[in-house]
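Example record used in the benchmark description.
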Amino acid sequence: MKRFALVIGLVVIFSLVRGQDPQFTQFYANPLYLAPSFAGATAGDRISAVYRNQWPELNNVFVTYSFAYDHFFENFNSGVGVLIMRDVAGSGDLGVLNAGLLYSYDIKVNREFHLRPGIHFNYTQMGLDYHKLIWNDQLSSGGSGGGSIEQPPTDNFKPDVDFAASLIGYSDRAWGGFTVDHLLRPNYGLYNNDAPLPMKFTIFGGYQIIKKGHLLNPIDETLSLAAYYQHQDVFNQVVVGLYWLKAPLMLGFWYRGIPFLRGSDEDYQKDPRGDAVAFLVGYKMDQLRVGYSYDFTISNLVSSTGGAHEISITYEFQTTRKKEKARMVPCPEF
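Model output (C-alpha cells):
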C-alpha cells in the first residue's frame, strides 16, 4: 500500500498539479525535442527514436517514447521535421501524445558564424484510461474487487494545439541557443477543469575543448563541455556534462540539479545533493548511432526509484550536400 500510494502521489503531483514536461538525458540524441532550430541541422536525412524508462522500481511510473524525422532543403537553406512523442505515467496510463511539424532556416552571418531560428506547431492530447484505475470504493481488506460506482467523464481525452520557437547560434567549435515552449498554454485539465500547461524556457550551449582529425576523417576525436538550463513553473534544473568522442566510441558524464538554489515553496525544496548523475556510452557505425545512458539518483529518492534508463537510435542517410553548406552545429550527437 505504501508503494501504491507513492506511485499515485507522484503521478498526480508531477503530471497534473504542476505540469512538468518529460526530460531526456541524451538531449542531443533527440534534438528536435530540444529545439525546433535543429530541424534539418544534419548532413543528410535523419531518423531518430528514443525510449526512456524513469524510476523503474516504481512499476514503470514514467515511460516516454519519441520518434523524429528531419530533412534539409539545400536550395532554400531550410530544414523541416516531424516529431511524435508519447509519455505515459502510472497504471492508469495517464499520458500525453504530441505530434508536430517543425521548420528552421539557416542564416550565414559571416564565414565563422551561423544563426538558425526555428518554430514548432504541435497537436497535443492528454488522456487517461479510467478502466485501469482502482477507486476508493473498490478497496477492501482482501484487496480490490468488483466494479466502481465512480463515473468517469465521457471524454477521456483532451486535445489541444501548441507552439514553440527557438534560436541557435553556432560557429566551428561553439554553439548556444534557447527555446520557448508551450506559448499557447494547452489545457491538460481532466473533468472539464482548467489546467493550462506552464510555459517552458530552455537555454543550452557548449564548446569543443579538443577537436582532432585527419584528411580521411576531419573529426576523429573531440572533448566537449555542454550545459543546459530549464525553467517550467516552479521547477528549475541545470545539467552540466562532458562528452568524449574517440571514433567510433562516445562516452559522457553529466550532473543534474541545482543544489545551491532553494525554492520558496516548502514542498519543492531542492535536495542539497542535487537530482542525479548520468553516464552515457554510445557507438557510431557509418550512418547509424546507438546510445545508452543511465541516471543514478543522488537525491532523497536514491533508494526508491531505480534511476532511469534511456536508449537512443539515430540513422542519417548519405547526402550530396555541398561542403560549404554541410557545416553542422558542432554539438555532440548523443
